[in-house]
Amino acid sequence: MKVMRLKVMLIAGGLGFLAFLGLLAFVAIFISDEEHSSDGGDFIHDIGGISVSADVLKHQPMVEKYAQEYGISEYVSTLLVIIQVESGGKLPDVMQSSESLGLPPNTLDTEASIKQGTKYFADLLRSVEKNEGDINVVIQAYNYGGAFIDYVAKRGSSYSFELAESFAKERSGGSKVTYSNPIAVKKNGGWRYRYGNMFYVDLVSQYFISPQFDDELVQIVMDEALKYEGYPYVFGGSNPSTSFDCSGLTQWSYRKAEINLPRTAQQQYDATEHITLSEAKPGDLVFFHSTYNAGTYVTHVGIYVGNNQMYNAGDPIGYADLTSSYWQKHLIGAGRIKQ
Question: How far apart, in whole angstroms, are the C-alpha atoms of residue 79 and residue 60?
Fold first, then answer.
């Protein structure tokens, strides 16, 4: 389940942090090759909504220990997925965190790797929160280094694949290499820039499993919406052939459950029963103001999925964390669809 506490989306985005000093200047070039991640075999679904290998899951107690030490216990699932991507849980330096200390790759033993990787993630998290970014900025920065946070902050604070790509292009001087990971093949035919891994967010995201809902109609809506996860945001988009904007995604997805919503975020807000976010249940809508100059009060809408998370047409389409400073600043509240 791609539901994380920051995101943002995390989105989710984003899916609120402390100044990230020394590490911010260090640019870690962590290249997560597909041979390190475990793409087959027996996967175990933990309570955090992730699908990881037994080799990764055995590190959970130590991840929990250091996540608690650094005040990020809510990110245990994300840290385990990073281990899945970085090493499949099979290398001593399971989080490939040696580089974040300026050491050669695979220098740290397992406990030192988890301790440093967790601390590094926590530092990135605080820096991104300070810049009002989202969880995907944190995840990509784990691969690229803290410089990516400043790069994104100067271009609107929110993660997008295009920003990850342009950052790698600048840092590599435009040099490309073949990259046969299926995610890359699907997205661009199978290449990446020779700097870090511009697909890192996608690599991490694939290990979060889809949520299951008690309400049958909500499940229908989310089953449809999740088909477009990772698609780019397209202003005015309202069907799979063009991708979606925020209200286009909600209108299309709810229509699959035979619920007809009007087209724009403002119209959808006007058509719902207004409730607070604390009253929201999965399947309710979440509304925001002033995310851009739309000429209306309501400018963005997402689908509430529980645990202060929403699924929305950000860029890309995916989960976002409603506790992040960005979404809190723009939050209007939730809306319950009148039936």
Answer: 9
What is the C-alpha to C-alpha distance for residues 295 and 55, in angstroms, rounded to an integer? Answer: 52
Q: How far apart are the C-alpha atoms of 57 and 83, rounded to whole Å?
A: 9
pLDDT in tens, 53-64: 999 999 999 999
* Candidates 131, 143, 181, 300; catalytic one: 300
Say whether 330 is catalytic.
no
Q: Which fold has domain 216-337?
A: endopeptidase fold (from Nostoc punctiforme) (3.90.1720)
Q: How many CB atoms neighbour CB 328 within 10 A?
A: 14
Quickly list H helices, 88-134.
Answer: 110-130
Q: What amino acid occupies position 142? A: Y
Name the catalytic one among 246, 274, 293, 330: 246
- Based on the residue annotation, tell me whether 274 is a catalytic residue of this protein: no
143 is catalytic: no
- The one catalytic residue in 131, 136, 181, 312 is 312
**What is 9-204's CATH number?**
1.10.530.10
Give me the residue spans of the domains in the chain. Answer: 9-204, 216-337
Query: Can you state the angle between helices 135-144 and 76-86, rounded to 10 degrees?
Result: 30
Residue ranges with strand state E in the chain: 9-13, 43-45, 51-53, 176-178, 191-193, 238-239, 243-244, 272-275, 285-289, 298-306, 309-313, 317-321, 331-337
| pLDDT tens digits for range 248-261 | 999 999 999 999 99
